Amino acid sequence: MSEIKHTPGPWEVENCGVGKQANKLFIWPGRETGVDFHAVATVHEDFGNRWANARLISAAPDLLKSCKDLLFFCENMDPKDTMREIWEGARASIAKAEGSRD
């Protein structure tokens, strides 16, 4: 797989705005990434879908990895055990993007 050029995941969503920042959600690299603490993205205002947008953005690295894993599997036809791992990763990525952990 190609080298990633984006901030490594996982990313997390936090509502840490106060004052002028109160209507913002911040997407940060997870603490386990070892990346300096900086916002990857900010979602402004609340039009009823602010949290959904922030969750989708924060799931981007997971979704990209799941898609790459699935593509690799399809190209190389790995054994069933690998497929289960890819399947579970894809389900977890979708759940993160949709705001559930099922």
Description:
The protein has 102 residues and is of the alpha+beta class. The protein has two domains: 8-58, no CATH class; 60-102. It contains three helices and three strands. The chain has helices at residues 50-58, 60-76, 80-98; strands at 11-14, 25-29, 41-43. The protein has a three-stranded antiparallel beta sheet with strand order 1-2-3, with helices on one face. The longest helix is centred in the C-terminal third of the chain and has 19 residues, at 80-98.
Whole-number tally of structural domains: 2
Terminal residue distance: 28 Å
Largest sheet, described in full? 3 strands, antiparallel
Query: Care to count the β-strands?
Result: 3
How would the global form be characterised? elongated
**Sheet/helix structural class:** alpha+beta
Which spans have pLDDT < 50 for at least 5 consecutive residues? none
Taking all Cα atoms into account, the compactness measure Rg is 16 Å
Tally of helical segments:
3
Q: What strand line-up does the widest sheet have?
A: 1-2-3
The average pLDDT score comes to 79
Strand and helix order: EEEHHH
How much of the polypeptide forms β-strand, as a percent range?
A: 5-15%
Helix coverage percent: 40-55%
